[in-house]
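Entry 12.
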Amino acid sequence: MKSPVLGKSTSQVEVQDILRQGLWILVKGEEFFLSFKEYPWFKNAQVSSIYHVELLHHSHLYWPDLDIDLELKSLKHPKEYPLLSH
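Predicted 3D structure (tokens):
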């Protein structure tokens, strides 16, 4: 028996992978890498908390379990947002 082909993902935001260096996230068809060096809040977070992400207002990423929010513009144009948490 052959399984049917899966349809398109309906999620607008999805964490695709977590690596030692950071995480890959897919937002509205665009892929972004968030390194733990630049986004240290995720480094010691529980995996389930990292995967629990929401897209608000089509431009705002929010991790409710971690109380972290990022504007999508800051991922698309990081040079325009030079201030990072240390």
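Annotation: The helical segments are 47-51, 72-76. Strands lie at 13-18, 22-27, 30-35, 54-56, 60-63, 68-71.
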